[in-house]
């Protein structure tokens, strides 16, 4: 069988309408716009409303990607959803997404690899296409982190946001797709970024809830150290595997957790700023969704064209990391020309008070 290649033929992203600014957070935790911006580069983030869940965001991003690709939902062979915040622990959120999009002939599975999940998903999809097993695959990265945030913990609640991004990959004979990759994991650092409950180690109990173990906890300094090291080293290794250097890569799309981490990697690898995508100011850390959102925005803005080489790199809970070089196939230009560019839903300026009130958790904080 001739080896096939994965062409990226559609992309899209979606962020919920509620925009929460740093000034909004100043009203509920002891923080400041200055602290958040100087430590993380984040200025605002999107939070879902009470009735929105991860599948809703995934379906909207997936719908936009499919629309751009011109692929009918029933022609999708596989749906992969990378997320750490599924609607339910069971069933897998990927089946809600597959059903919601009308991908009636597709298999579907979810990948829980923290913020690294989308790159794991993309590399997995590429393998299915290379073997000829599947022709058309939808890969989604989506999160609703806000519902797992402890809004009394200033060390985490200011950093994260909600959103989704998606791409459609299709088999082609033209050389493109993943050129080299690295998937990494260091489980010895599991505690550095963890939501202990619910799970089989800590099932839901009054004790677990009273001790707020259902919220995300993070050792920020440990993650920072890990992130700066793995981001630069894994990028170097995937470029080395492909036999290319920084000059051969057209666009770097790193995980958007913190501007300082991205700037550190860019400086260490001497990446020209115009080749590095950074939108963390507008979304915060949307975990598995940051890379597909950044990719979607960059492609929509025309920052990469058919034949260009992208470098994607992520890190996150596990601790895990993943990097890949991805060559854009010939259809990218066609997709852009023949379909309206997708755009993130811009915020309506809802205040954090209304967002939090909707979720019924802030009354006690403000009082
Ligand atoms: N507002 C104001 N002050 C805050 C704050 C906030 N939101 N959060 C923490 N602080 C305080 C701390 O309490 C500490 O005070 P102290 O010195 O009196 O103890 C001080 O700011 C410095 O805290 P520190 O943790 O040393 O800050 P930092 O420079 O390391 O930055 C992070 C903190 C979280 C921004 C940084 O460690 C980071 O980005 N880590 C990586 C996180 C990440 O990427 N996570 C996602 C992985 S996918």
Structure description:
There is one protein chain. The protein is of the alpha/beta class. The chain has one domain (1-362): Thiolase/Chalcone synthase (Peroxisomal Thiolase, Chain A, domain 1, 3-Layer(aba) Sandwich), CATH 3.40.47. Helix content is 35%, strand content 22%. The protein has helices spanning 22-26, 33-40, 54-69, 93-101, 117-131, 154-157, 206-210, 220-242, 259-268, 280-283, 290-300, 331-338, 352-359, 363-366, and strands at 5-14, 18-21, 44-47, 78-82, 107-111, 136-144, 162-172, 177-185, 193-194, 217-218, 251-254, 309-316, 320-327. Strands 1-7-6-4-5 form a five-stranded mixed β-sheet, with helices on both faces. A four-stranded mixed β-sheet has the order 8-13-12-11, sandwiched between helices. Helix 8 runs parallel beside helix 9 (259-268). The chain is globular and about 55 Å long. The chain starts with a strand and ends with a helix. Bound molecules: coenzyme A. Coenzyme A is lined by residues 31, 35-36, 39-40, 115, 154-155, 158, 193, 218, 220-221, 223-224, 227, 257-258, 285, 316.
């Amino acid at each position: 069988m001739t080896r096939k290649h994965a062409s990226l033929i559609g992309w899209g992203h979606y962020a919920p309408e509620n925009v929460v600014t740093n000034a909004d957070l100043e009203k509920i935790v002891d923080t400041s716009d200055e602290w958040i911006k100087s430590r993380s580069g984040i200025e605002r983030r999107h939070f879902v409303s009470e009735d929105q869940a991860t599948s809703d965001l995934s379906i909207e991003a997936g719908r936009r990607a499919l629309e751009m690709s011109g692929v009918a939902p029933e022609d999708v062979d596989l749906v992969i959803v990378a997320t750490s915040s599924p609607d339910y622990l069971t069933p897998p959120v990927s089946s809600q997404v597959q059903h919601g999009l009308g991908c009636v002939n597709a298999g579907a599975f979810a990948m829980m690899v923290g913020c690294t999940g989308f790159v794991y998903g993309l590399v997995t999809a590429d393998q299915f296409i290379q073997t000829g097993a599947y022709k058309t695959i939808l890969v989604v990265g989506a999160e609703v982190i806000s519902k797992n945030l402890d809004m009394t913990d200033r060390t985490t609640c200011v950093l994260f946001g909600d959103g989704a991004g998606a791409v459609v990959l299709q088999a082609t004979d033209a050389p493109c797709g993943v050129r080299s990759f690295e998937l990494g994991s260091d489980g010895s650092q599991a505690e550095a970024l963890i939501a202990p409950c619910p799970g089989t180690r800590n099932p839901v109990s009054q004790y677990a809830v009273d001790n707020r173990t259902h919220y995300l906890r993070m050792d920020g300094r440990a993650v920072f150290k890990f992130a700066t090291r793995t981001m630069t080293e894994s990028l170097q290794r995937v470029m080395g595997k492909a036999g290319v250097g920084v000059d051969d890569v057209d666009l770097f799309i790193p995980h958007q957790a913190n501007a300082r981490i991205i700037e550190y990697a860019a400086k260490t690898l001497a990446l020209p700023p115009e080749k590095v995508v950074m939108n963390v100011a507008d979304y915060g850390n949307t975990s598995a969704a940051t890379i597909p959102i950044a990719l979607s925005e960059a492609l929509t803005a025309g920052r990469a064209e058919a034949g260009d080489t992208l470098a994607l790199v992520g890190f996150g809970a596990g601790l895990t990391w993943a990097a890949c070089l991805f060559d854009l196939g010939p259809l990218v230009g066609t997709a852009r020309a023949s379909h309206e560019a997708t755009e993130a839903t811009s915020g309506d300026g809802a205040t954090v008070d209304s967002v939090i009130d909707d979720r019924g958790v802030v009354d006690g904080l403000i009082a």
